[in-house]
Amino acid sequence: DGCPTALKGTPSHPDGVVRGFKCVGGFIGDPAWCAAKLEERLAKRIANLDNVDRLIDTESITNAGQLQYHMQRFGASKLVGYFCRLMPPDETADAAAAVDDRIRLSFERLIAADHSPAWLREVAWDQAQLPSRMGGFSLAGNVHTRASAHAASFLGCWPLLQRTSPVFAAQRLDPLAPASPDAPRPLPMLNV
User: SS in 3 state form for 90-142?
Assistant: First the structure.
């Protein structure tokens, strides 16, 4: 009470309580709100594939297909990676799936997959997500790698957290390591 009604998070604000906020490009707060905001943000960015899909060869430009593939691989496929490292996997699941689905649509348009049976399109998409060194196209695959990306990011920062924060300094991550009776309890493991 006594706060201006225009101030988000106050009981008298039309939206009520602030469910989260944007920080370093990602979202922190209520998991459902964070997931929805991320999906909304990436939907705007992945929509650019609509323009890329319209590229066609002309007399002077004969590599439209290559340009489309490169935009799918080096542009669209990389959109989700940062957020998968930054935000918990349950908050990136829907956005990763939406981006992967949209990249798949562009890829199938590029290879004219609509002439193939559904089972063969599934096989082609599974292979397209493999790295090029394994015979794939290095496309998308964010749904499959989001949890490991988040865990790798967390674990990569762990030594710095232990050196700089008293809260983390005495914590251990290995739940199988023998603990002395006076050792601090381990942090909860990541839900990946």
Answer: HHHHHHHHHHHHHHHHHHHHHCCHHHCCHHHHHHHHHHHCCCHHHCCCCCCCH
DSSP at 19: -
Q: What is the spatial distance between Cα 92 and Cα 147, in angstroms, rounded to a whole number? A: 9
Is the CB of residue 142 less than 8 Å from the CB of residue 99?
yes
Which residues, in sequence order, are CB contacts of 124 under 8 Å at separation 6+? 108, 111, 113, 116
User: Per-residue pLDDT tens for 148-187?
Assistant: 999 999 889 988 988 898 888 878 776 665 555 555 555 5
Answer for the pair 189, 177: CB distance below 8 angstroms, yes or no: no
Strand partners, 29: 20
Strand partners, 21: 28
Cα–Cα distances (Å) from 70 to 45, 59, 67, 77, in that order, read 16, 21, 5, 10
DSSP state of 75: I
Residue written as tokens 């979202």? 27
Cα(13)–Cα(59) distance, rounded to whole angstroms? 59
pTM for the model stands at 0.79
